[in-house]
Every structure is written in C-alpha cells, then in structure tokens.
Hints:
This protein has 144 residues and is mostly helical.
Amino acid sequence: MSAENMRTLEDHFCFSVYATSHAIQRLYKSELVNHDLTYPQYLVLVVLYGQEGMSVKKIGQQLNLGTGTITPLLKRMEKLDLVIRKRNPDDERGTLVALTSKGNHERLALEKLPSLLVDSTTLTDQEWNQLTTLTNKLMNELIP
C-alpha cells in the first residue's frame, strides 16, 4: 500500500471507539468516585441487578473479562459489601455472585448515570438507538 493510501487516524474506526470509550469513562468518573466505585465495578452492578445469582463465568462472559480479571474484581467488591459470593449448589466447582442490599442501593443510586452521556451530546433519540444497535451488532460479531 502506498503512503497516499494509508488511512489517517481519523479514518480508523477502532481509534474513534477507543477514544470515545475513554471519554465516557472520564465523564462517569466523578459520579463513580462519589460512590467509591470504579467503572468495572459499576458494570458488575449493572449485570447483577435483578439477578438472584450469576456464575462468575457468566459475569466474565457478559463483560468480556477473563477469570484472572473478574475474580479479583469480585473479591474487592465483596470486601466492600457490594456482592456476596457463594458456592453453586448445583456445581461445587462454580461460584454464584449476587448483589447485597448495599450493592442494590448503589445500582439504584447510579440509575441515571447513562443520562450524563446522552445529555452531553446533541444526538437525537433515533441516532442513539441507531448507534447503540450498530455498535452492539459489531461487538457481537467480533466477540465470540
């Protein structure tokens, strides 16, 4: 490929997604800090909300995190009394995770966090729906 055909940074979709992801996390950070939470901890609260219990493996799959990342994250959240971990009665090798009452409270307290993002843009509801649909489609095609 010749130099004149090389894509610029602005033409790399992957960079746009990468930079946008970091910008969203910066936007959320001040609110999360007020709740003593990290962004990955917030995502765990989102995944577990309304669930009676979910396996560590399933949480990792939903968040696209390996056990080497998700297990220490869940242990820290358990120390903060946000989740409870217990052996799966149907499979002693597995662990089930559920939100504690404090974890449920934090999830509810952060219910409007995504509106910070929506309110900081000029995208219409239709554009948000289209962006979300297409981004989820791409994610689901790229993540096995």
